[in-house]
Amino acid sequence: MTANQLPGPDELTERERKTVEALVFGLADDEFVLAERYTEWQVRAPTLESDLALSNIAQDELGHARLWYDLLEEFGYTESELLFERDPAEFTHAAFVELPFEEGDWADAVLRGYLYDTAEQLRLGALEDASYPRITDRIGKITEEESYHREHAQNWLERLCDDPEGRENVQAATDRLFPHALALFEPVDPDREAAIQELGLRSEPLADLREQWCAITVPFLDSLGVRAPVSEDGTLPELPDDHGRSSAHTGHWPALHEELTRTYRELDRTDTPTITSDPDHAQ
Amino acid sequence: MIWEVFRQEQAGEYHTHCGNVHAPDREMALLFAQIQHARRKPTNSLWVVPKSEVTTVDADTDGVEFGGTTDKSYRWVSAYNVDVEFAEEIEESDREQRQAEGES
Amino acid sequence: MIIHYKRPDVMNVEEVTERAEPRAFSPQDDMPEEYRKAATRMIQFHANSEIMGAYLERPFIRQSPSLDRKLAFSAKVQDEIGHGQLLYRAAESLGIKTREEMLDELAAGDGKFLNCFHYPMTEWWETPMIAFFVDGAAMRRQATIKRTSWEPYAHAMDKICFEEGFHIKHGEDIMRELATGTRRERQLLQSAFEEWWPRILQFFGPTDDQSTHHDFADRVGLKTMSNDELRQAFLNAYLPKAEKYGLEIPDEPRIREEEGRYVVEEDDLDWEEFWEIASNEYAGSHEQIDSRAAAQDAVAWARKALDRPHGS
């Protein structure tokens, strides 16, 4: 395995670097935008305790985004370029994470967390032996935090589905989110997808991960009395047109990006203040 | 049946876990706990709780990293490059945080 | 289960006054209703303020101009909700109201909270006014409440003060950045300061507090310092800070230095507005209270799920 290890950030060939980028941008943008949406629940969650838990999950995801963006910064990008000055159309997250929450739709929050973190577990698992050490460095820290997220989401879903009103809300969220969640298994750059495996970055193709994801999520939802929109013969629903990744985003994304860059733009900032140390030098 | 015992030394202080007793019911547990855990040490109050009612999450057994695994230094006074000496309560908060984080 | 060696009889107010040491009373003590009501009023106000402060600051998680600032803002707002959780518990332990009742009162516009959290805050350069000055003022006050006579309140304060230090540093760091930034940033900071300064001075209320609440709270050890002493302590530490960051202290309200003390000309402050706010009747109050109430109401269905027995 070590024979095929890729070198450090400065010694990668152009093709290798672009391939790593195609992989990591998707991971980073997914975490970042999901966290941005999660923070909407701060001071709005059902109870004070659940508010604290969801805030923590948001911070975890932001922390994960930072780890991935930091990896990209080793290729010369700055945080300003990556977050504040990048054209919103160039963000590569699945539109699944950018969809707004309807006020009070806690079923959406926990279901989204469940679908996302189950996907996250699988895709990080497939990166555990990645040939680029900068990636494997980060997997352990992230995986550790994700297991709390899954447990949290599952507990809530079980509870909500205990009564008809709650189950109805979870069903409605499933109908809406499930097709969008499939985009988590879409490539950021279809032309580089083959290279991601060839170079030993990801051990499994996205389609296989998607299949595994369905094999976990569909029966779990079923056990709660919630039907995922998958037909008897296993046919998946069609991806929405604006599902993000390499295709278009929904109109919600530019609006969200506009809001989150507001201060940066209004103050004509060119730089982003940091508080924490570089993750590779911390501890 | 085992009962966990929490002892508070003086009014105003915290009840902290000090041990347990075997007893068949609440009343006996209270009687035994008073003698076993409060006869020698100064005591203001005891809480006695059935052990089976205490639910646990444990760093080693459950593989949990309390406080997370990614860098969360932004939650600490020491991450900010500004002075703390101007207000004693902030100095104290900083000191407590450093102690909690295992610095001296 | 709680057992007591020396179960006290119901105390009367004279006995309470006599025994009113720091952390002297706990739920084991049978406190007179007057004490329990006064303590509930004080702690509920404090808890409500944590929630409404967090509500005011939450938009800036999104509007933070860097990833680290966003993390810090999220962590800060999270801490404030955690403080609300601690304080409502401390208030509940007096046996007058449940947390649900207190949150419902807040949503209905009957819950009182700090004057500063009634004003809208819309711009990033305003955030240090809350995150540094108001939190700094609150922390001055909270440090003295570690010595309150209601033990659960003091215990809540131990944890709150432990966490709160970072909030003020976070606020100061944002202020430092603006104060050492572009000319425009410095101007925006100054104008935010001028707008917020009188409100911040009113944080501790009028010093010649005529309220009957104050006397009683003081007598039974719920409060340990007067409004005037607290405002002195605040000005001693924070006025020099404002000056250090190049902020010009507005001419009004006039503040004179007399024998090492700051004397605020209280007639220069708008007390009519202050009392309007104190009764939740200020225009901004409605906006803050109602939009938070709508959010609380929208998740009532999910809260219900927590009350149902599960898994049996």
Keywords, please?
heterotrimer; A: 283 residues; mainly alpha; Ferritin; 10 helices; 58% helix; 0% strand; globular; B: 104 residues; alpha+beta; 2 domains; three-stranded antiparallel beta sheet; 2 helices; 3 strands; 19% strand; elongated
Descriptive account of the structure:
Chain A has helices at residues 14-38, 48-73, 79-84, 106-125, 133-160, 164-181, 190-198, 206-223, 252-260, 262-266. With 283 residues, chain A is mainly alpha-helical. Chain A has one domain (2-266): Ferritin (Up-down Bundle). The mean pLDDT of chain A is 95. With 104 residues, chain B is α+β, with helices and mostly antiparallel strands. Chain B folds into two domains: 2-53; 57-104, no CATH class. Chain B has two helices and three strands. Chain B has helices spanning 26-38, 88-100; strands at residues 2-8, 16-22, 45-50. In chain B, strands 2-1-3 form a three-stranded antiparallel β-sheet, with helices on one face. Chain B is elongated. The model of chain B has no long low-confidence stretch (mean pLDDT 88). Chain C contains 13 helices and three strands. Chain C is globular and about 65 Å long. The two termini of chain C are 25 Å apart. The mean pLDDT of chain C is 93. Classes of the chains: A mainly alpha (283), B alpha+beta (104), C mainly alpha (312). Chains in contact: A-B, A-C, B-C. At the A-C interface, α2, α3, α5, α6 and α10 of A face α2, α3, α4, α12 and α13 of C.
User: How is the biggest beta sheet of chain B arranged?
Assistant: 3 strands, antiparallel
CATH architecture of chain A: Up-down Bundle
Radius of gyration of chain B: 20 Å
How many strands of chain B? Answer: 3
Could you tell me the mean pLDDT of chain B?
Answer: 88
User: For this structure, what is the CATH homologous superfamily of chain A?
Assistant: Ferritin, core subunit, four-helix bundle
Largest interface, chains and sizes:
A-C, 52 and 52 residues
End-to-end distance of chain A: 28 Å
Specify the helix fraction band of chain B: 25-40%
**Could you state the order of secondary-structure elements of chain A as H and E?**
HHHHHHHHHH
**Residues in helices of chain A, as a percent range:** 55-70%
By DSSP, the count of extended strands of chain A is 0
> What are the secondary-structure elements of chain B, in order, as H or E?
EEHEH
Unreliable stretches covering 5 or more consecutive residues of chain A: none
Query: What's the average pLDDT of chain A?
Result: 95
Report the β-strand fraction of chain A as a percent range.
under 5%
The helix/strand class of chain B is alpha+beta
Report the total helices of chain A: 10
